[in-house]
Amino acid sequence: MSGPQGTFVRFGSSGDGYPYREMKLYGAQREIEAISLNLGLLPATFTENTRSLAISKVSSVIGCDILELGRMAARVVDFLDLKLPEFDVLAHFERAIHKCPSFTGISNGTKETYLSRIGFYWSAW
């Protein structure tokens, strides 16, 4: 080394004396805890609750676009080779038709007609 005597350069650490990796892990853990708290995922309720979260709610808490969040989730599923349970699109669509306030003015017969048509087209797909 050609630097002045007594100069020490430390590799692999941040200015706080902690290794860079530990600082990144600590920051990520704090961020995950903050997001989990905002979504209401406390450790006690997380083990009891098996319901899924709406992607729009998660994206608003995280602060990213819904499409980008979906892409990120797909990458994680592919990378970890997760086997997710089947997703019944028709059952969720039927629930949305019956529960959505926008459809309260439509008669039940009309709703059932729409659902049967969608089911026919979906099964033909």
Describe the structure concisely.
The chain has helices at 20-38, 43-48, 55-62, 66-80, 89-99, 108-124. With 125 residues, it is mainly alpha-helical.
Q: What do these coordinates show?
A:
It is built from six helices and no strands. The chain has helices at 20-38, 43-48, 55-62, 66-80, 89-99, 108-124. Helix 5 (89-99) packs antiparallel against helix 6. The radius of gyration is 25 Å and the shape is elongated. The mean pLDDT is 77.
Write the layout of secondary structure elements.
Layout: H1 20-38, H2 43-48, H3 55-62, H4 66-80, H5 89-99, H6 108-124
Distance between the termini: 70 Å
Number of helices: 6
Structural class: mainly alpha
Radius of gyration: 25 Å
Shape: elongated
What summary fits the major beta sheet? none
Helix content: 55-70%
Beta percentage is: under 5%
- Arithmetic mean of pLDDT: 77
What are the secondary-structure elements, in order, as H or E? HHHHHH
| Low-confidence segments | none
Number of domains: 2
Number of strands: 0
Main features:
125 residues; mainly alpha; 6 helices
